[in-house]
Amino acid sequence: MSTPRQLSLNAFIYPSGHHEAAWRHPDSQPGRIYDVDYYQEIGRTAEAAKLDAVFFADGPALRTNVKHNAGSGLEPITLLTAIATATTHLGLIATASTTYYEPYNLARLFSTLDHISRGRAGWNIVTTGTDLAAANFGLDRHPDHAERYARAREFVDAVVALWDSWEDDAILLDLASGVYADPDKIHPIDFVGEHLSVRGPFNAPRTPQGYPVLVQAGASNEGRSFAGKYAEAIFTAHQRLEDAQRFYADIKAQARGFGRDPEHVKILPGISPFIGDTEAAAKRLEREFNELTVPEYGLSQLENIVGKSLHHLPLDEAVPVDLFDDAGDVTDNGRSRLQVVAGIVQRERPTVRGLLHRLAGARGHRVFAGTPEQVADTIEEWFRSGAADGFNVMPPYYPGGLQVFADTVVPILQQRGLFRTEYTGTTLRDHLGLPRPAGRTAPEPALTS
Amino acid sequence: MSTPRQLSLNAFIYPSGHHEAAWRHPDSQPGRIYDVDYYQEIGRTAEAAKLDAVFFADGPALRTNVKHNAGSGLEPITLLTAIATATTHLGLIATASTTYYEPYNLARLFSTLDHISRGRAGWNIVTTGTDLAAANFGLDRHPDHAERYARAREFVDAVVALWDSWEDDAILLDLASGVYADPDKIHPIDFVGEHLSVRGPFNAPRTPQGYPVLVQAGASNEGRSFAGKYAEAIFTAHQRLEDAQRFYADIKAQARGFGRDPEHVKILPGISPFIGDTEAAAKRLEREFNELTVPEYGLSQLENIVGKSLHHLPLDEAVPVDLFDDAGDVTDNGRSRLQVVAGIVQRERPTVRGLLHRLAGARGHRVFAGTPEQVADTIEEWFRSGAADGFNVMPPYYPGGLQVFADTVVPILQQRGLFRTEYTGTTLRDHLGLPRPAGRTAPEPALTS
Which long-range contacts (CB under 8 A, 24 or more apart) does A406-411 make? Predict the structure, then answer.
């Protein structure tokens, strides 16, 4: 009997939790967010629950509103290396920018993480679209969306070519003759693009996975096309089943259009679960967190999304429905977030404070408050109805929010046969059901006539 | 009673050992050089011996002559993070290039290593001078020496300013008011140079050490001046006591000239010890390694140093004394290595094979074969005669070569009162006797009249 289709579940780590006020709640541990033990413990919790991977977002700039925002700013590849040494099976996915890294450097960091973790690395490819980041790299403004994606395509092509520049059997380790590696099986890549050029070859052999899993998160048209071509897993933000289904169908079709097996593109929406013994208890917990928010912080975050000043709006009156008609200077990669927010306002007609609470949970990702059964039900519904291959779980608070999910929701999904009870492989590709890329082989010798 | 002046001792890690043929010797383990456990074991050995630090060289290009060269190419910051989690006191020094990194990215990698290791990171600052590296970053030729050092100065200034951009008490963690950090204590750096510009602020607080220890290795005139201004530890390559003394005096004077305490610049020559129960046994061991060298490999390495073809030279005849008079296309940072080699030829008049054996040990660093007492004697002599504050120990083979040094030489140095028997601090700065940099404080408030 073959195994039925299985969910993929990641834990998306944000230091104190994804709820913006989590660090103020007694169940979080904000004093430990620069302590490596804290992240290793979270990794062990995720591995004990047999999750596919842990995941970190990233950007090379100080977060906005640091006054009220307890992010850590730690560099995720380094942090995941520390988690790698505390675990044996857990996948390790780091975000890194194609706009602000050099391909040779980034290829090395991820290759080394894959070697160190024995095949558990994944790269969440982002193009980073903020002027704050640009100013840290000598630019006045960040390059526009189209230019960033053009560079991103070249960047990924070059990095993959570097990772594949050694044939799998290039190392000979022939003690007798003194030949360590066969130079004929190590190839320059001679990549020449419009935005970057890399000669190669890479300076290390292929990794246990061939190369790290390619992950992507862009929801713009360019982002989708990029994802259809390159991504092996996609992190998405959808509030509603029907939107998620539409996205799912689109990406799978794009992958097919690129000649890829749609099974090899896993679509993983975010979900931020408040879990309680009863639905009322879960909603009470969510309210408790929302009441800890600082409206000034939420308003300025919302201003970043809509691109205009909102501080004049009375907190307890309804959000004007025309608020988004003349959205100001919206960054192009903010447009999909703007659509999410506009959708909430149109459907739910919240007060300003209500909208801030809706967004406080997980920055536009879906927040769900319910019992373990209800959380499992909605995961199963999306999984069975063509909306998701799994989920990027975004606990509202850490470490407890992940522990509760692991202790109460995971066992239900396991009982339903939807999620593994033991790892069946050792690499992130194994967990996701992705093949190890074949890599290059020597060209056929020319026929002699 | 105050502690007498203490040696600093690092273990410089090269995968199978510093001798170029180490990977062919039965005492090395070349099949494990992509296995993280191997490096964690080396780290634990170094820590058990109470060494100051382990250290990795690095460059963003495939090593030359990979056919006979068993380097690993693994990225050292990531690798040291894995060693950090297996140790508690050991310092962790990684080489990284100012020419081929962006300052914001590199500042983050080292800052995170310092946070994760609780204050044990060091950065060996190099400018990387090979065309092979340049071609991996879209350049036809590497920038020249002066231009690389000009960028390096700006780079280090910008990185240190980033590391210091948060005042030490910027994080308030005020749960009651919802204020995580005081934005008035987090400063943009607004660095505008000729080669790079970085606005800042950094996206993470100062590290346990304030910032990582700054290490440097350049021996050119520009390298020395750079070292005198910035370096807190310097790795050098000297064959003879008198050359090392001259260098030592020069650097200490340069540091004084920059208004620095010369005690805060530690000078650490490389030494690659073959250790035996008798001097004859040690020399036999060295010969055993030398006999495993592949002359074709050694010749091509030497050709890289002298910048011209040498394959016509008969191996068992004397090296022509005029060989270096018309050195060819020598890269400018190769000039100091060229001087080391020319000095050996003038003093020792070796055969070509003999010269290749002399260089096979540690790429121009000093190779010393003797008993544990003799190794301790030469270390003590250099330490007491103004030539060294300690040593960068380069075991000819790993892991055994480090183990033998730890088991036989370290106890002698400890008995002589020259080296710690227990760590007295927890950070790399503690081990090296370097102060934690003060960091910036808020400007005095303007006086109201």
Answer: A406/A45, A406/A46, A406/A48, A406/A49, A406/A51, A408/A275, A408/A372, A409/A273, A409/A275, A409/A372, A409/A375, A409/A376, A409/A379, A410/A9, A410/A49, A410/A50
* CATH number 3.30.70.3270 given to B8-166+192-273+366-432: no
Q: How far apart are CA A314 and CA A308, in angstroms?
A: 16
Q: Are A273 and A409 in contact (CB under 8 A)?
A: yes
DSSP code, position B253: H
Q: Is A58 annotated as a binding residue?
A: yes
Tokens coding A71: 């992010």
Give pLDDT tens digits for A159-201: 999 999 999 999 999 999 999 999 999 999 999 999 999 999 9
Q: What is the pLDDT of residues A47-101, one digit of tens each?
A: 999 999 999 999 999 998 999 999 999 999 999 999 999 999 999 999 999 999 9
Q: State the smallest CA–CA distance between residue B81 and chain A in angstroms.
A: 6
With 60 as the cut, is the pLDDT of residue A389 above it? yes
Q: Which secondary structure element, helix H or strand E, spans residue A240, and what is its range?
A: none
Q: Kindly provide the b/e burial profile for residues A158-172, where b requires at least 16 CB atoms within 10 angstroms of the residue's own CB.
A: bbbbbbbbbbeebbe
Chain A residues whose beta carbon lies within 8 Å of the beta carbon of residue B95: none
* Interface predicted TM-score (ipTM) of this complex, two decimals: 0.95
Q: Give Cβ neighbours of residue A190 (< 8 Å, ≥ 6 apart).
A: A199, A200
- Please state whether beta strands A8-12 and A121-126 pair in parallel, antiparallel, or not at all (unpaired): unpaired
Q: Which amino acid is at A224?
A: R
Q: What residue spans define the domains of chain B?
A: 8-166+192-273+366-432
Count the neighbouring beta carbons within 10 Å of the beta carbon of residue B377: 14
Q: How far is A61 from chain B (nearest CA, A)?
A: 6
User: May I ask the CATH class of domain A8-279+365-432?
Assistant: alpha beta
